Amino acid sequence: MSEYIVSARKYRPAKFDEIVGQENIVKTLKNAISNGQLAQAYLFSGPRGVGKTTCARIFAKTINCTQLTDETEACNACESCKAFEDNTSFNVHELDAASNNSVEDIRNLIEQVRIPPQIGRYKVYIIDEVHMLSQQAFNAFLKTLEEPPKHAIFILATTEKHKIIPTILSRCQIFDFKRITVSSMVNHLKRIAEKERVGFEEDGLNIIAQKADGSLRDSLSIFDKIVSFSDGNVSYQSVLENLNVLDYDYYFSLVDAFYRNDYAKTILIFDEILDKGFNETNFLNGLMKHFRDLLMLQNPETVKLLEVGENIAKKYEVQAKSVSVKFLLKGIQLLNNFSVEHKTVLDKRLHVELALIELSNITGELNEKSTITVKDKQEVTPAAEKPVVKEPKPATYDTPVKPEEVKQPEKVESKQEIKPAEKKETPPETTTLKEKQTKPKNPMGDIIPDVGSMLQDKTSEKKEKDTKEESSAEENNADFSAEDLKQVWQKFAEFHLKEKPRLSQIFLTYSPEIKAFPEIEIELLNENQEAEIKSIYNELLGYLKHKLKNSKIVLKITVNREKTIRTEIPYTDEEKYRHLKKENPKIDDLKDQLNLFFD
How far apart are the first and last CA of the chain? Predict the structure, then answer.
C-alpha cells in the first residue's frame, strides 16, 4: 500500500505556471527574474491558502536555477533545483515567526545572513507570519533588512499586513495576493479529479469552492474529505450531506411560495429544514444570497456575478424570469432587517417565521400600491376639470356709431347663474367713443375686465368668510368645570412657558377661579406678577378659548394686597430655612453640626 499524501501537498505548484489565480504577481516576478531586477526584500500579503508561501518557494528555487527555460521557469535538472526538490538546499531558509518571534531568533538569523551561498547566487530567507514578531524583534531586524548583503533576499509572508510596522513596509516590495475565484478553483479541482480518476459532478465541485471561501488549500482539504465519504464519487448530494449545506431546491420552492402569497407552505418548508439540523441564522443568510443571485440575473451585465454550477444556473434563469425586480429588492431589504435583529431575539424560530410571513406578503403590498395609484388617478382627473364660465364680452367699436344702434349683450347660458354686482350701470348713451377706445386690450383683442369690480367681489367674499367665522365662534360656547380650567392652565405653563421660568412659576403657584361663568379671575400678590401675566395676556386668552371651546371667556386679573400680608412665601435661602425650621426644629442642630451659615 503506497503512502497517502493529501492533495494540498501532492498537487502543490512546483513552477510559476501552476500557481492558480495570481497571474499578475506571477508575471511581475518572472519579469524581475528575466531582467535581473531583484529587490532585497519582498512582502507577500493576503488571506490564507492563496499561495503566498508556495510562490515564495518557487521564486527562491527559480532565481538560483542555473539553466532557466525560455518561460523563466526552473529547469528541475541542475544541482540547485535537485537540492531544492530533496529539501537539502542550504540556499533557502524558512522561519516561522509565530514560534520564533524573539530578539534572539532574529539575531541568529542575522548571523546566518553573513554567510554566502555555496551553490547558486542567492540565499533566500522566507519568514512566514511575520506580523507575529515582537516590537523588539522588528527593531533588531530593520538594519539588516534595509542593507542586507548582496547575496541575501528576504521574503516576508503575512495574513495581517496592518500589524506590520511602517518602517518594515517601506523597505519591501509589497505584493497583495487576492482570493481565488470560484471558477478558478472549480477548474483546478476538475484537473485533480481527472488525474486521481475520481468521479465528480460540477455542481458538487462548485459547492466545495464556495465553501472554501477563496482558499485553494481549504478546497483541496474539503475535496479529500468528500472523496473519502463518497468512495471516489464527488456528487452534488454527497457534498450537501457532508458539508451540511442546504439544497438550492429549498430556496427555489420558498421564492415560488413567496410570490404566490402562500405563507403556510413557507413555514412548512422551514420546519423541514430545521428537522434536518440547519441553523436559523445560516438559513437567513442563504436565503438572502439566493435573492441576491436572482437579482443579478435581472440584468445581462451582472449575470457573470452568479457563482453556481451549470445545472443550478439554469434553474436560476427560469425563476429569475418569473419574479420582478421590485419583489427581489423588497425581499432583500426585509431579510437584511431581520438578519440584523436576529442576533438579539430570544425565540429565533418565531422570528424567522415572521420573516417568512412578511416575505409572503410582498406581492400583495405591491399589487395594492399599484391599484391605489390607478384609482387615485381616476378620481383626480374629473375633479381637476372645473366648468368654464364664459362672461359676455363687451362690444368694441372701430367706427363711430349712434347710441340707438348699440346692441345689448346677449345672456350667456351656464350651469351656474351669474349675478351682476350691485352697482350702477352706465347707460350706453353716456359712454363716449373715446373712453371705449382708450381701455387696455389683451393680446386676443378683448378688453381687460374691470379691476375695481373684481376687488369689490373679493372684499365681499372676505366679509362673508369673516361673518361665517364669527357665527361659528358664537356657536362654540361649551361649558367647562373648574377642574377643566385647572388642567388647561397647567398645560399652558408646561408647554408654552419653558423659556420663562419665573412666569411659569406664577402660573403653577396661582390658579384662576370661575366667578361668574364664563368670567375667570386670578388673584395675584403684587403689580410685578400682574405685569408678567399681562405680557402674554392675548396669547393666554386665545389658548383658553380654544382649549375650553368657549369664545366668550373673559380673564380678569386682580391684585390682593391683604393676601400679601397674610401669605408669606419664602424666596431667599434664609426664608426657606426659617420655613423648614418651623416644620422641623431639629434642623437647627444639623446646621450647627455642619457649621453652616448664611452670607
Answer: 103
The answer regarding whether domain 7-178 maps to CATH 1.10.260.40 reads no
pLDDT, tens digit, for every residue of 529-580? 788 888 888 888 888 888 888 888 888 888 876 654 444 566 677 778 888 8
Check whether 55 has a pLDDT greater than 90: yes
Which pLDDT value is given to residue 419? 47
What Å distances lie between residue 397 and 401, 436, 493, 516, CA to CA? 8, 8, 70, 71
**Domain extents for the chain?**
7-178, 279-377, 482-566
**pLDDT of 86-141, one tens digit each?**
888 888 888 888 888 888 888 888 888 888 887 778 889 999 888 988 888 888 88
Amino acid at 577: Y
Please state, as a whole number, how many other Cβ atoms lie within 10 Å of the Cβ of residue 38: 15
Number of neighbouring beta carbons within 10 Å of residue 352: 22
Question: Identity (one letter) of the amino acid at 444?
Answer: M
Structure confidence at residue 412 (pLDDT): 43
Q: What is the pLDDT of residue 411?
A: 47
By three-state DSSP, how is residue 134 classified?
coil
pLDDT tens digits for range 37-54: 888 899 999 988 888 999
Q: Which residues contact 383 (CB under 8 A, 6 or more apart)?
A: none
Q: Where are the alpha helices (DSSP H) in 385-419?
A: none
Cα torsion 424, 427, 430, 435: sign:
positive
CA distance 415 to 410: 16
510 CB-contact burial (10 Å; exposed 0-12 / middle 13-18 / buried 19+): middle
Give the integer Cα–Cα distance in Å for 489 and 104. Answer: 83
Smallest Cα–Cα separation from 203: which of 235, 230, 248? 235
> How far is the C-alpha of 204 from the C-alpha of 133, rounded, in Å?
41
CA quadruple 484, 485, 489, 490: dihedral positive or negative? negative
Calculate the CA 268 to chain-centre distance.
Answer: 32
Number of neighbours of residue 237 by Cβ within 10 angstroms: 12
Q: How many CA atoms lie within 13 A of 114 on its CB side?
A: 4
pTM of the model: 0.55
Give the number of other Cβ atoms within 10 Å of residue 243's Cβ: 16
**How many Cβ atoms from other residues are within 10 Å of residue 181's Cβ?**
14
Q: Is 339 exposed, middle or buried (0-12, 13-18, 19+ CB in 10 A)?
A: middle
- For residue 174, the number of C-alpha atoms closer than 13 Å in the C-beta half-sphere is 15
SS3 479: coil
Quote the CA–CA distance of 432 and 400 in Å, as a whole number: 10
Question: How high is the pLDDT of residue 439?
Answer: 46
Q: Which of 49, 47, 41, 50 is nearest to 22 (CA)?
A: 50
Largest Cα–Cα distance of the chain, in whole Å? 135
CA pair distance 315, 491, nearest whole angstrom: 65
